[in-house]
Write a structure and sequence with these properties.
2 domains; three-stranded antiparallel sheet; 3 helices; 10 strands; 25% strand
Length: 127
């Protein structure tokens, strides 16, 4: 599975667990007594297989409407002095996306592609 931009699963009790980076091993003990896990961030998907979880991994192969809702970017605010928050691609200002693309050197290639496609999407759809 290549070009991952979101790596998560939902457990039967409705808990959403997400792995944001390589070796970001996240677990949850569900109300049903089973343990669920996800790992790999945007590099690979490794997860529990209890059979009752919902896999929510999104890649660039999904429609852009899904990608723009799932893809997120961590930000410390315009001046870098605010607590870390994550903004969905669809909620980022165009100037923010352009700033990331112009100034961030080690951006994940899939995230970079999603941002570039988002700019074209906004232009084509007057968003």
């Amino acid at each position: 599975m290549g070009n991952i931009i979101y790596n998560a699963l939902k457990t039967p009790d409705g808990t959403l667990i997400q792995s944001k980076h390589r070796h970001d091993y996240v677990t949850h003990m569900d109300a049903n007594g089973k343990e669920y896990m996800i790992d790999g961030g945007l590099d690979y998907v490794r997860c529990s297989a209890n059979g009752d979880e919902e896999h929510l991994t999104v890649t660039l192969d999904d429609s852009h409407e899904i990608v723009r809702e799932a893809c997120s970017w961590g930000t410390y605010g315009p001046k870098g002095d605010q607590p870390l928050t994550y903004k969905k691609l669809c909620d980022m200002d165009t100037d923010h996306i352009q700033g990331v693309l112009g100034n961030v050197k080690n951006i994940n290639p899939a995230i970079k592609s999603a941002m570039q496609i988002e700019l074209v999407y906004r232009n084509d759809n007057a968003v």
